[in-house]
Design goal:
By secondary structure, this protein is an alpha+beta fold. It has 2 domains: 231 residues, FAD/NAD(P)-binding domain (3-Layer(bba) Sandwich), CATH 3.50.50; 123 residues, 2-Layer Sandwich (D-Amino Acid Oxidase, Chain A, domain 2), CATH 3.30.9.10. Helix content is 38%, strand content 28%. The protein is built from 12 helices and 19 strands. The strands form 3 sheets. Strands 1, 2, 8, 9, 10, 11, 17 and 18 form an 8-stranded mixed beta sheet that branches. The protein has an 8-stranded mixed beta sheet with strand order 6-5-13-14-15-12-16-19. A hairpin with a 4-residue loop joins strand 10 and strand 11. Helix 9 runs antiparallel to helix 10. The protein is globular. The structure holds flavin-adenine dinucleotide. Flavin-adenine dinucleotide (FAD) binds next to helix 1, strand 2 and helix 9.
Length: 390
């Protein structure tokens, strides 16, 4: 059984799929979103929080920024700590002069769902795509336990384990990938931020990070061994380790509160050689996964959704396929630049373990990089431009 054909079938109601859906409806292109989870689960999934100025511009231009304008916070400083002291960078005033807007991803997703439904869009929650096949003038999405959905195009926005990516790789698209060999325990706590800035702490026990989310919720990261079970990390252990690595004895205490969520994230990155072709196109984590070390993933998802919406509109409304043909060339250089910076950040934040000569050499490079960032205006501008640029 098949339901009627639409212009674009979007698989996945994360930032990529929801921005794409809203932009398509704005341009008069009909689409339907298939999402395997239920609405509450999608709206409750806490992940990103730092939106680049480019993402805010896209959301604002399309009437999707009321929530972040009302509740988001402008953020433009980060602080680095190590056994050699601490320093702060006003990155929002350096480089491009663009700060971040801090707005939790789940709140953005909630806003995007409401806007999509308000525009008359349809989201089928609980509809898990089981595969995508291309036919002469359409593409078909198989829905587990339901009717197939067909569209002139399919947009795979279903993350890095989704069906869109599987369909592309099955037809030969290769993936460039790197395992950064590092994992983070990502912790969300019900406590106000402890620092004015994003905090990056380098420590011989491993990296620790502090990121504001809202006035009452803060995200912390603790580097941990690969294979770590979050259940082994009690609240006491988390706060003790954070205090050690963030050097609270020297720099002041953290504002503590109950742990709301803890999960282990393995830092891995990959990019598909091409984000689509024919009737199937990908955006967001589906097209490339980026390690969270520079907070780029959601921002790349918005960028790709914007480019893909324009290209799909040209193809569907004007029979002009040049935008789709150029989609890879338009998006990949920017994606790779974000990966290069994210990789650079990963090298800055994670020193080698151990005391052998190679580890000691690696650690001195880490200090040298940090010192250059502290003292060189050129290096600070490089950091700021890449930290906030998309
Ligand atoms: C701890 C953490 C912190 C982060 N911090 C930041 C940050 O500060 N800034 C930043 O820019 N990025 C950050 N990121 C990355 C960011 O969250 C992701 O890059 C972003 O969610 C990607 O959006 P997406 O829409 O491509 O994919 P997703 O958000 O993964 O959405 C994909 C959707 O598709 C659905 N789906 C999957 N398979 C199917 C299927 N078969 N059928 C139907 N639906 C399906 C999923 O349920 C999901 O809702 C962070 C990530 C993590 C893990």
């Amino acid at each position: 059984m098949t339901t009627a054909q639409v212009g674009v079938v979007i698989v996945g109601a994360g930032p990529a799929g929801l921005v794409l859906g809203n932009l398509l409806l704005d341009r008069g292109i009909d689409c339907v979103i298939l999402e395997r989870r239920d609405r509450a689960a999608v709206e409750g999934r806490a992940r990103a929080g730092f939106l680049a100025a480019h993402s805010v511009r896209v959301l604002t231009e399309h009437g999707l920024a009321a929530g972040l304008a009302a509740r988001g916070k402008t953020h433009g400083t980060c602080l680095f700590r190590s056994d050699r002291g601490e320093f702060t960078l006003d990155y929002g005033k350096l480089g491009l002069g663009e700060p971040h807007t801090v707005y939790p991803q789940q709140e953005l997703v909630r806003d995007l769902i409401a806007a999509f439904l308000w525009r008359g869009g349809e989201i089928r929650f609980g509809a898990e795509a089981g595969g995508v096949t291309e036919e002469a003038a359409q593409a078909r999405v198989r829905v587990r336990g339901g009717a197939d959905v067909t569209g002139r195009y399919v947009a795979g926005c279903d993350g890095h384990r989704g069906t869109g990516r599987a369909a592309l790789t099955a037809r030969g698209t290769r993936t460039a990938r790197r395992d950064h060999g590092v994992s983070w325990l990502a912790v969300l706590v019900a406590a106000p931020p402890s620092l004015e800035a994003v905090g990056y702490a380098l420590h011989e026990r491993g990296f620790a990070g502090h990121m504001a989310r809202t006035d009452t919720v803060t995200r912390y990261y603790l580097q941990c061994p690969r294979g770590t079970d979050p259940a082994d990390w009690s609240e006491d252990r988390i706060w003790t380790e954070l205090a050690t690595r963030l050097r609270t004895a020297e720099f002041g205490p953290l504002r503590q509160g109950p742990v709301l969520e803890k999960a282990v994230v393995d830092l891995r990155s990959d990019v598909l050689d091409s984000p689509g072709g024919g009737r199937l196109w990908l955006a967001g984590d589906a097209a490339g996964l980026i390690s969270p070390s520079a907070a780029k993933g959601a921002n790349l998802a918005v960028l790709q959704a914007e480019l893909l919406a324009r290209a799909l509109e040209a193809a569907l409304a004007h029979g002009d396929g040049t935008g789709l043909a150029r989609y890879a060339a338009d998006s990949l250089p920017r994606v790779w630049r974000a990966h290069e910076f994210s990789h650079w950040m990963s090298g800055l934040l994670h020193g080698p373990a151990g005391q052998d000569d190679e580890a000691r050499y690696g650690r001195q490079l880490q200090y040298a990089r940090l010192e250059s960032l502290r003292t060189s205006r050129a290096h600070q501008d490089f950091f700021a431009e890449n930290y906030t640029g998309i």
